[in-house]
Each structure stands twice: as structure tokens, then as C-alpha cells.
Design brief:
two-stranded antiparallel ribbon, mainly alpha, 12 helices
């Protein structure tokens, strides 16, 4: 029921411009009224549900909305991505850790808003707007630390691990930038220097999963989902960071592995 209500509110928000929500946008307007004075933590579950659903509707064609209004709604959400990620952190801080799926929902919401914060509506889309959050800010963010730490929960909380993989993949994509080739107009991805700290943190966290991947490969199928998740992360890193690893990270990574062998 809660999810259906959140979808309905997101659909309403897609129809009504920010001016109809006291000029602060639907998400901020609803967040203020849902949480009230903050004395009832149970309301935060409703807000977290909205934070999961709203970015999904940004790129959806399900509401029958005029194309220009659809584009405006997407731009509104992109502009709100930074405050939305702050809301997710606030919900997580105040909610009981015993709340069902609180980590999974938080990681889902974080992944979706990280994608929006980079101006993208879907994972493989070109940005439709300038990034709202830089890689340095994401590197130090508590939700980034949660996502990377949750990669180690593959044995104790496999569901949390799966959602952490999704969030980490969005973080990987958030480290890249694009440049337009003046000769042919093609767009090319590259990793700017400002992203290198986050790249290093991500690569280090994923490489720490090598023993888990080895164990999963020898499990005769019982740990296939863990192997798939780790393999997906390695594929994303290989696709985005091959030049960065060779130029910047290889000496440190190889040195660390050499110490492990010894």
C-alpha cells in the first residue's frame, strides 16, 4: 500500500510544476508534511519510500504527461538530488536499524539519486543537465561508505549486498565525465583528476572481494549470486577505469597484492 501511495504522489508531482508546491517542489513539500516535527520515526519509512519512488518516475513514461512537462519534472528532480541524498542520510540516522529492509531501501534510493545527481535519468543515458554533486563530495559521504561497507555483507545479508552492488555501480559511473570531440562531435568518457580519490576507494573495496569471488567460484552453484555481483563490479571497473588503473593505481594495487602473497 505504501509503495502504491508513493507512486501516486510521484505521478501527481509529474503533472504539477514546482510553483504548485509552494515553489519548493513536490519532494520538499511532501517531506515537510510527512515528517512533521520529527517526533514520530515511523513516518520516516514513508519518506524513504518516496525517495525510492520519485527518481524512478523521473525517467518513466507511465504518467500521461506532456513531453515538455516531463522534461521539466526530470530537471526539477535533478536539481533536488543533493537535498534528497541528505534526506536519505537523515532517515537512516533516525530510523531503527531493525526496521525491515531499511538498508536495502536506503541503498536503492541512494543509487537512484546519485544517478540523477549526474544529470542522467537512466544508467546508460547521456547527461541532460550538469552534475549537482561532485566526486569529492560523494567520496566523503556516509552513504558511499555504507554502500562500500555493505559489499562485505554477502554472507550475512545477501540482499543488502545486492543493493550495495547497484549503488556502487552508480558511484562508478559518477566518477566519469564526458568531452565532445571537436573533429567528429562524438562524446568520449574520461576520468577527471577530481574523481581519482573516489576511484581509488571504489577499486580498493572491490578488490578486497577477491577471496569471496574465489570462494563463490568453488561453491558448486550455491553462491552464484554473490559471484555475479562481484563479477559485475569488476566488469564496471574494467570498462571505466582501465586507463586510470594503469596510469595511477597499478603500483599501489600491485604492491598491496605482493605484500599479501608474502
Amino acid at each position: 500500500m505504501r509503495t502504491q501511495l508513493a507512486v501516486a504522489m510521484a505521478s501527481l508531482a509529474a503533472h504539477l510544476p514546482a510553483t504548485e508546491w509552494d515553489d519548493i517542489g513536490a519532494l520538499q513539500w511532501l517531506a515537510t508534511r510527512i515528517t512533521g516535527d520529527g517526533s514520530d520515526p515511523s513516518r520516516l519509512s514513508c519518506l524513504l519510500e518516496l525517495l525510492v519512488v520519485f527518481p524512478q518516475e523521473a525517467g518513466s513514461y507511465r504518467p500521461a504527461v506532456h513531453p515538455e512537462r516531463r522534461r521539466s519534472f526530470a530537471r526539477e528532480l535533478i536539481m533536488q538530488s543533493k537535498s534528497a541524498i541528505t534526506m536519505i542520510s537523515s532517515c537512516l540516522e533516525q530510523m531503527s536499524m531493525n526496521t525491515k529492509n531499511v538498508y536495502e531501501h536506503s541503498l536503492d534510493a541512494f543509487a537512484a539519486w546519485v544517478r540523477l545527481s549526474q544529470g542522467r535519468l537512466h544508467a546508460d543515458d547521456l547527461p541532460v543537465q550538469a552534475p549537482q554533486i561532485d566526486a569529492a563530495t560523494l567520496c566523503a559521504h556516509p552513504l558511499t561508505l555504507l554502500a562500500l561497507k555493505s559489499l562485505t555483507t554477502h554472507e550475512s545479508r545477501p540482499s543488502q549486498f545486492d543493493h550495495a552492488v547497484d549503488a556502487t555501480c552508480e558511484l562508478i559511473r559518477a566518477t566519469r565525465a564526458q568531452v565532445v570531440d571537436s573533429r567528429d562531435g562524438d562524446r568520449h568518457n574520461f576520468i577527471p583528476a577530481s574523481s581519482l580519490q573516489l576511484v581509488q576507494v571504489i577499486v580498493s573495496s572491490v578488490l578486497d572481494l577477491k577471496p569471496a569471488l574465489l570462494a563463490a567460484s568453488q561453491s558448486e552453484g550455491s553462491l552464484d549470486e554473490i559471484a555475479k555481483g562481484i563479477s559485475r563490479l569488476l566488469a564496471e571497473i574494467g570498462e571505466e577505469y582501465v586507463a586510470v588503473i594503469a596510469d595511477y593505481l597499478a603500483p599501489e594495487v600491485f604492491q598491496r597484492d605482493e605484500h599479501r602473497v608474502r
